Amino acid sequence: MLLKLTSLVPLYPLIGCIINGFFGLRIGKNAVGLIAAGSVGLSFLTTLIIFIGLVMTPAEERVFEQVLFTWMAVGDFTAEFGFQVDPLSMTMMLFVTGVGFLIHVYSIGYMHEEYSFYRFFAYMNLFMFSMLLLIMGNNFLIMFIGWEGVGCCSYFLIGYYFEKKSACDAGTKAFVMNRVGDFAFLLAVMYIFNIFGSIDFTTVFHAAPEKLIYDSETVTIITMLLFVGACGKSAQIPLYTWLPDAMEGPTPVSALIHAATMVTAGVYMVVRCNALFALAPITMWTVAFIGGATAIFAATIGMTQFDIKRVLAYSTVSQIGYMFMAVGVGAYTAAIFHMVTHAFFKACLFLGSGSVIHGLHGEQDMRKMGALKSHMPITFVTFFVSTLAIAGIFPLSGFFSKDEILYHALMDGNFILWGMGITGALLTAFYMFRLVFMTFFGKSNVDPQVHPHESPKIMTMPLVILAGLAFFGGALGIPLFHGWHILHNWLEPVFYFDMPSALEHSAHLLHEQGKHAPSWSHLLQPEGDHNVWVEIALMLLSLSIAVAGIFGAYICYIKKPHLPDLLTEGQWGYDLVKNKYEVDEIYDETIVKPTLEGSKLLWKECDAKGIDGAVNGTAQILGWLSNQARNFQSGFVRNYALFMVVGFIGLLIVTL
Amino acid sequence: MELLIFYPLAGICIVLALGVVINNSPVNSAMSLIGMMLGLAGIFILQQAHFIAILQIIIYAGAIMVLFMFVIMLLNLKGKGEDDSWISRDKDLLLTVLSSLLAVGVLYKIIIIINAGDFNSPALPPDSFGTVREVGTILFTKFILPFEMASILLLVAMIGAVVLAKSKVD
Amino acid sequence: MEMVPLTHYLFLSATLFVIGVVGVLVRRNAIVVFMSIEIMLNAVNISLIAFDRYLNLHDGQIFSFMVMCVAAAEVSVGLAIIISLFRNKPTINLDEFNIMKS
User: Fold this and answer.
1) pLDDT by residue (tens digit) across A377-416?
2) Nearest residue to A364 via CA among A432, A309, A304, A314
3) Per residue in A467-485, pLDDT tens?
4) ipTM over 0.95
5) Which residues of C are less than 8 Å from B138 in CB distance?
6) For residue A642, what is the nearest residue in chain C, using CA coordinates?
7) What share of chain A has pLDDT > 70, as a percent?
8) Distance of alpha carbon B44 from alpha carbon B156, whole angstroms
């Protein structure tokens, strides 16, 4: 059976990591690059083989579990070290290993000047291993290990240039903010174990409709905690500020970890737990609105930034907001679809920006770029294609995936959400073309001493492939025609949720508790027909919105380059947005500083005086007592004999 | 008849034991101790423990006491032991009280035990009881292992004594 | 022939034992302390042999034999210790030795 190869997929990067980590300095840069990229490439090939195996099995049986060993068994609690392959994790595995492989190849060129080349690739391989654990784990604990592992590797790689203080700070910030989310995730896992007595995905999700009451507090708390965890990892409001700072790491890291794979782990986790989220309408609503708000919020900041990578980072935050919006309205397929296409075009954009930075010898400020399209044609073309894709221009991949999200938001009957999405689309088109125009068009503002040049082939080849994927990726989910949506058909078994029977169970459970079940009949109304005309109208609308955004950028940055300065001159609103809404400052004032002050207080007062005092005091009292007791030990033999006799007399008195 | 022998012997033993403790000079103490050992040997004979009585004379009065005398002579303790008589020390009042308490307590305990049990009708031992033949037979059959252990103990003590007393110069 | 009652032996044994204890406690001369210990060991031997005869057994005699062995060993080692102590410090007054408390 082809599926038996499953456990090999994460094994290759782990081996690569071990070889590179321990012997990397000795075997030379070429070998390190070959091993690192080769191990991920092998993973990708293995994943393809497994994919073929999975396609060949009938659609209903497409869940394959492989348990390697029982990791721990304590009382009722058993945790297995096992993998699960189903269409959802298969999709993730394919694009994670595929995009990961391309980025590894690109990194060989990009990082070639670095001394600690091997360290970079050891971390990258470790990241791939952790990410695959996260995706493939068959229970919450394995997922959590991967979850922590990717956070850890993210920390390592953000702080890769550890001699730079800003890089270290950014790493710490990312780690601490992730920790908030991770803690919530861990709490959720504990709660789930408390209720289900198991942390196995299959067991939990099968038992969920029977044990949890629809819209009850329990399920709301669990899903809310899970969502907070997802927020931390996927950089959503209010835990998003680490992601822009994470751009301190090398550009391939930003492409792999902070755009394509790790930051989408939160979305994956929520989608994976769809059986729980389906029972918690309040959480779903929260997820959708947090997603929508993040989409607009990050997009506005993205419009004002000048660092090329920061713009892309805010764009990432915004796009993940779209994914959460899709999850929140129950359009899981749309979320995964957007995740896949986003991985393609955002990885391409990041790698393209890396190519630009590489060509300009480390310049990241867009005000010092311009007119680069003739200097680096391949980078320009691929970058432009990806920008069109993210802006949502027909027929590129971003158009289909974003449009599907907007359609589902509207069909959900939520006009505010839809309005948020459409606004976000406008802003996305604007800031992305602002980026393109400032970088590749206009007149050159490049430092005269720097001679821009095209990057080597090893870097442009992945760009071309990713741009091609960004162009054609939309073919995975062609709307309008029934049965053409490949991804939808592929993922459908995973998202099947029997709502009527779940509601029946809930009513039964409520009845047992002596409560009256509210009327849920409105939830059971059959879904409206797929309205083709509405969809076409929406497509045209979003296309025109995207074009409007592009046109706006064209006016502002090509036609009348002084217009933005005139418009923003002295506007307090602009300054506010440019300073990222002062969110970092607010966090500093409200959370970081009180925490620091509180910690200092605890350290100086509570720890140094209270705890240390108690400990030292105990020791001192004991020392004093011992000193007293020492006096008994006079060292004179006859004294000891005396004590013996006293004891003897005591014994006699007792027996008498 | 036995009682007539017992009382004088016991009296001599107690007096000589006191002499050991009270005498200021170690040589005098040692002489008293030898006397006490001999008296005890007599009491052992009275108890039909002939073998032990012989051993008492050979080991204690012969070997151990010679050792004591030898060490006393070797160290030449004139004026290096206790300076004054032990009785005149005030500090020992407490000790005296304690030890007399102990003595009274032990004796009282013995009286209680004797009153509780009937100790006055002993089984009459045969004439061969306690002879060298009898004790030797038991020693080399039933108690052969403790006997061997005792020999090892003596060997160890001998080596230990040699090591300890050896001059550190060489 | 009238036998000496067991109690007499026990009283003798107890008296000698107490004299030995007092000797250990009150004397400062290490050699005399040793002698007192010998007195105590002998006092125990009296009891052992007395019970032995009373019960018509030989085990007590064997035991007192062992006691003698131990006493011999103890005296030889103890006197060796006294000699080496005397080498360090020309006295055998026990109150002069408190190096156990350092």
Assistant:
1) 888 999 999 999 988 888 888 888 888 888 888 887 778 8
2) A309
3) 998 888 888 877 766 666 7
4) no
5) 58-59, 62
6) C25
7) 97
8) 29
The identity of residue A342, as a single letter, is H
Q: Which amino acid is at B66?
A: V
| Cα–Cα dist B10/C19, whole Å | 14
Residues A300-326 have pLDDT tens digits of 888 888 888 889 999 999 999 999 999
Amino acid A43: pLDDT: 93
Structure tokens, C58: 């030989």
Tell me the sheet residues that pair with A84: A65
A557-590 per-residue burial string, b: 16 or more CB within 10 A, e: under 16 = beeeeeebeeeeeeeeeeeebeebeeebeebeee
- The secondary element (H helix, E strand) that includes residue B156 is helix B144-165
Q: How far is A639 from chain C (nearest CA, A)?
A: 8
User: 0.90 cut: is pTM over it?
Assistant: no
* B110 interfaces chain A, CB cutoff of 8 Å: no
Integer Cα distance of A415 and A149 in angstroms:
39
Q: Which residue has the tokens 């039909």?
A: B48
CB contacts, 8 Å: B146 with chain C: 62, 66
Q: How many residues does chain A have?
A: 656
* CB-side neighbour CA atoms (13 Å) of C74: 15
Nearest-CA neighbor of A196 among A369, A77, A114?
A77
Q: What is the DSSP string of A276-316?
A: HHTT-HHHHHHHHHHHHHHHHHHHHHHHH--BHHHHHHHHH
Domains identified in chain C and CATH numbers: 6-94 (1.10.287.3510)
Contact A83, A54 (CB under 8 A): no
Inspect the interface and report whether the beta carbons of B2 and C42 lie closer than 8 Å: no
CB C67, CB C26: distance < 8 Å? no
Cis link prior to A518 (omega < 30° from 0)? no
Residue among C24, C98, C100 whose CB faces A641 most closely: C24
State in Å, rounded, how far the first CA of chain A is from the last one. Answer: 86
CB contact under 8 A, B109 and A649: no
Residue of C nearest to B136 (CA): C62
For tokens 């990432």, the residue is: A316
Tokens of A421: 């999405």
Which chains neighbour C (Cβ–Cβ under 8 Å, 3 or more pairs)? Answer: A, B
CA separation for the pair A365, A439 (Å, rounded): 9
Maximum Cα–Cα distance across chain C: 61
Q: Packing angle between helix A87-110 and helix A29-56, nearest 10 degrees?
A: 160
Which residues in C lie closer than 8 A to residue A641 (C-beta atoms)?
A: 24-25
What is the rounded average pLDDT for all residues in chain A?
85
Residues on chain C touching A638 (C-beta within 8 angstroms):
24-25, 28, 33, 94-95
The residue whose two tokens read 């947005």 is A577
Closest CA to A255 of A367, A90, A127: A127
Please report, for chain B, how many H helices and E strands are present, in that order: 7, 0
HSE, side-chain direction, 13 A CA sphere, residue A143:
25
CB–CB of B131/B48 below 8 Å?
no
Which residues numbered 89-108 in B keep a CB inside 8 Å of some CB on C?
A: 92, 95-96, 98-99, 102-103, 106-107
| A202 in Cβ contact with A147 (< 8 Å) | no
Tokens read off for A193: 């174990």
Report which of A37, A162, A163, A45 is spatially closest to residue A112, judged by C-alpha positions.
Answer: A37
Taking a C-beta distance cutoff of 8 angstroms, is the pair A230, A236 a contact?
yes
Residues in chain B: 170
Q: How far apart are CA A231 and CA A447, in angstroms?
A: 40
Q: Considering only CA atoms, which of A57, A83, A54, A56 is closest in space to residue A68?
A: A83
Question: Which of residues A511 and B125 earns the better pLDDT score?
Answer: A511
More confident position, C92 or A149: A149
- Cα A515 from Cα A507, distance rounded (Å): 9
